[in-house]
Amino acid sequence: MDLFTAGVSLILVQFCVALVMAGFFLTAPMEKATRYWALSGLMIALGVAVAVLNNRAPRPAFALNGAGLITAGLICQWHGIQTFYRRQPAVWGWGIGLAFVLSHALCFYLGLSFPYRAVLLDFTIFLLLGLSLHALRLGQRGRRRTFVHGLVMGGVAMVMLGYAMRLVMLLLQIAGRLPLTTTTFDVVTAYMVPLAGTVLFSIGLMLLYFERVVEENRHLATHDELSKLLNRRAIVAAGERELAISRRLDRELTVAFIDIDMFKHFNDRFGHDAGDEVIIDVARILKQTCRNIDILGRYGGEEFLAILPGASRFDAAVIGERLVAAVRDYRFRNTYPVTISVGLATLPGRDEECTWEGLMLRADAALYEAKDLGRDRYCA
Question: Does the predicted TM-score (pTM) go above 0.70?
Fold first, then answer.
């Protein structure tokens, strides 16, 4: 494959990437990462097109514009990865682009030949790809490694390998060890390896985006959007599972039914948005107060359900008092007190007679008893 054909292939791939990413951005404008990636594909495609048309001729306008577009595209690519992982894009990245343009212009001013300018460009590309690779590693820290993430990392590494080989070749040309001609190795390292790596990288970025969409949909299927806790279906499923485990292991289990006292008062006085704010704050307090092994969910409206594995009657009393006290210390908008009532029901080990529905009925009865006794308390 000649240099022109390889360059055109890379241009077409980048344009296709730009179009696909633009489609993603128009479908979900809130996802800013796809906008960066669309701009990246467009800029790199235009930059490669200018470079191919210039064909290594010593024309400063062509060379500076082409190399500048490629560099800007890689900076956008890096910023897109940072944005995708909810990180603030590093503004100083544009300083790298500015330093490159000024250095490239200085090369023309000093009359340096193509290999010297190419070393500067390839080193800058290698550096920016390394920053993208670093952003991918940081973004995945603490997360489960997936095949898609490995694909993206492999794509970036492949492109970096191509430019590392090209840097070595250029340095050998400058040292007089290689002739200053376009060889098959030059075509492969300059275009074919980046082309293959770009395809893998671009497909990987698209799959990363789809992977996140699937994860978010799965999360929404099991979690309440307002409180961020498990929803009713998920907490009931978790409770039935914990009940079965407790029976099998002869382990105690406690269920806590929690209700915000006088919740209608907040809605009537301050509006439904205020009621939502109370639910969010109480959910946060309950989550902070519960043990790490406890399972917490929003049962519906202003009601919450906590599943306390291994908690005996004594443990349940301690946890109930702790939950009530934690919410009692909270003030809505730093002014208005909020309280909760808690009904607790404990399953003795190997209680084959008590079903999940029966355990819930006992917790519900205890909750009504707490309400009747004046609220702001627990009953077991």
Answer: no
